[in-house]
Design a protein that fits this description.
There is one protein chain. With 275 residues, the protein is α/β, with parallel strands linked by helices. 40% of the residues lie in helices and 13% in strands. It has helices spanning 15-23, 36-44, 56-59, 71-83, 103-117, 131-139, 155-158, 170-184, 196-205, 226-229, 247-263, and strands at 28-32, 49-52, 89-93, 121-123, 144-149, 188-192, 210-213, 221-224. Strands 1-2-3-4-5-6-7-8 form an 8-stranded parallel beta barrel, surrounded by 7 helices. Helix 9 (196-205) links the parallel strand 6 (188-192) and strand 7. The longest helix has 17 residues, at 247-263. The structure holds 3-methyl-2-oxobutanoic acid. Residues 32, 51, 53-55, 93, 147, 190, 192, 213, 223, 225 line the site of 3-methyl-2-oxobutanoic acid (KIV).
């Protein structure tokens, strides 16, 4: 008997597929992805949507925060993730400075992500203040994912990257932002670093999927930054990060053994040489 699944095997997942999964009560997952090989692995694993996030600024390009990354740097990563996948929905982040000035500039940059990168959707940060941008993109046929709570592009006003957002009365404000994004036509909202009860409240109030990252267990879907998930990043990580592997340790061990083999003339041996 062929496996019966509500997820398409022969075409890209759409925002309607994500909504349908949420409507039937199915939890689904997202990961960030910045290159062809990881994208293919994550799709094979059943991760339904991949975000080419501006965390690539830190994870790939070595910047201190997400602010410096540009459209020119992100687009080739979007294209690589699209080339490495057949069914995953690919969401491209709009970087800092690419949409804040207004709907026109937001539209021009979102169009670039779809035309040059091949993404199927874009993500931007903010609530009521970006509603005109969200409405303009949706009117142009571009699916938009919102991002609330800890919004890393606002690190300089939030006072650091480890602050839990939305406590107390700020929770009501955040809920109003989420509802405004939904009204403007966003297909989903990422909720980052907020108390679990606010994650539950927002998920219950919104029809569209709420994608949690440090927002407790009750969101409709989850997203993680893949090097955090796989243990490639080291040092102190936010409390919500669960490491599912120790890639840092594995890679370190592999590279050390390789370097030692070369030094000891054990590699390459006969078996790895041409006759
Ligand atoms: O850029 C990114 O990776 C993100 C996730 C943290 C949601 O926005």
């Amino acid at each position: 008997m062929p496996e019966v699944t509500a997820w398409p095997a022969d075409r890209r997942i759409t925002v309607s597929d994500l909504q349908a999964a949420t409507d039937r009560g199915e939890r689904w997952s997202m990961l960030t992805s910045y290159d062809t090989l990881t994208a293919g692995v994550f799709e094979l694993a059943g991760v339904r949507a991949l975000l080419v996030g501006d965390t690539s600024a830190e994870m790939v390009l070595g910047y201190r925060d997400t602010l410096p990354v540009t459209m020119e740097e992100l687009i080739p990563m979007v294209a690589a993730v699209v080339r490495g996948t057949r069914t995953a929905l690919v969401v491209a982040d709009l970087p800092f400075g690419s949409y804040q000035a207004g709907p026109e500039v937001a539209l021009a940059n979102a169009v670039r992500h779809l035309k040059e990168g091949g993404a199927q959707a874009v993500k931007l940060e903010g609530g009521r203040r970006v509603v005109p941008q969200v409405a303009a993109l949706v009117a142009a046929g571009i699916p938009v994912m919102g991002h609330l709570g800890l919004t890393p592009q606002s690190v300089n006003v939030l006072g650091g990257m480890r602050r839990v957002q939305g406590r107390g009365e700020a929770g009501d404000d955040l809920l109003a932002d989420a509802l405004a994004l939904q009204r403007a036509g966003a297909f989903a909202v990422v909720l980052e670093s907020v108390p679990a009860d606010l994650g539950r409240r927002v998920s219950a109030a919104l029809r569209i999927p709420v994608v949690g990252i440090g927002a407790g267990p009750d969101c409709d879907a989850q997203i993680m930054v893949w090097p955090d998930m796989a243990g490639l990043t080291s040092g102190r990580l936010p409390q919500f990060v669960q490491r599912y592997a120790d890639l840092h340790g594995e890679l370190l061990d592999a590279a050390r053994r390789y370097a030692a083999d070369v030094a000891a003339r054990r590699y390459p041996d006969q078996a790895h040489s041409y006759a």
